[in-house]
Input
Amino acid sequence: MSKKEVIVGDSLEQLLNLPSSKSSPRDEFFNPSEDPLDYIQDFSPIDEIHITGMALEKIFILAQEVFSITQNKVEVYSLSVGTDHNIQDILIPSQNVGLASVFVEETAILEIIPTIRANNLTVLGWNHSHADFSVFFSGTDRNNQQILLADTANYRKWKGIPVKYVYGMTVNVHRDVYGVISTQIPTGKIYNKEAIIKVIDPITEDWDDSELRKEIRIILAEKITFGKVSTKERKKKKKNGKKI
Output
């Protein structure tokens, strides 16, 4: 599991037409005359990921179905989207899934941008599966989280101060979930905190998931290619891409 990676053809900053990641919250909001230690001394990092019951169920089913279809311990990647800081859905880009690796082409991200914009959604983070392994964040996952933090522009207010953040989640076929929230304060300091997953609008116990599973299987048939990317091919693709 330590070798897994997600490679995307370009930064989300450019693909989603978001504000430049070169300017940090400190550049925009921090008053240099203030003492950074006084400024952050009582800061409490965000520690809750709010997600609808249906969105979480979709993440679980995605993990289960890709595992079932490929009959291999592969991972699958999707973006968490929503409004008002709440994850309301996931978007699944076309991807090449392999044993401990996922490759997402630049064009795959471009294809889902119209959906994001048409529905006034915000990319709040990302999630990925661990097949039937335990859920955790590897070193690569933590690196991906920091890059996504830089490439998106989600802000919440803390005592009137804008704080940048991104959600990350790992699930498995057993319906275990592990979350991390990365927050960046105006001084530039980044906090990474294990998250409490809070389900909003839970689905009913008698809900039938058959239609959603059918929908996910159709998406997987259209968007998922199973096959390990060779080292030679990966180096070639990296010339025009970067990890996230």
